[in-house]
Hints:
single chain, mainly beta
Amino acid sequence: xxxxxxxxxxxxxxxxxxxxxxxxxxxxxxxxxxxxxxxxxxxxxxxxxxxxxxxxxxxxxxxxxxxxxxxxxxxxxxxxxxxxxxxxxxxxxxxxxxxxxxxxxxxxxxxxxxxxxxxxxxxxxxxxxxxxxxxxxxxxxxxxxxxxxxxxxxxxxxxxxxxxxxxxxxxxx
Length: 173
């Protein structure tokens, strides 16, 4: 699995490519529990203070789960699921109709306008740092789950903002 992060004055862009020989998602609708099947997860703590962080999960079928937390896993059980940012999502499953790729898996991308992170949030300045993490949930045949993260949290929980990786916004070239 791999992820890329880009940005401009308008939005943050995240894309991913996941090798997967068994793709599963039977859930539909916004805020379905995508982590129960295949999903790509993004956690973002814009100011790195471990408060007011955001979670977005995307499925191979283009479903979106999004929520905001005040602090680590608070409020229970799933944060502020009423946070529903206006984003653009695209996914593509390899092997789908008209796909000549031999590899199995799926790719996707999301465009998140800066304003969706809250009032007054604008594009970062060059050298600003945000705390971010990426995870892959992978359901296997028979229902077993496996997962992987970009920055290991060192506990059995993805919701550890203090352990998120750091994305440093570079100056335009």
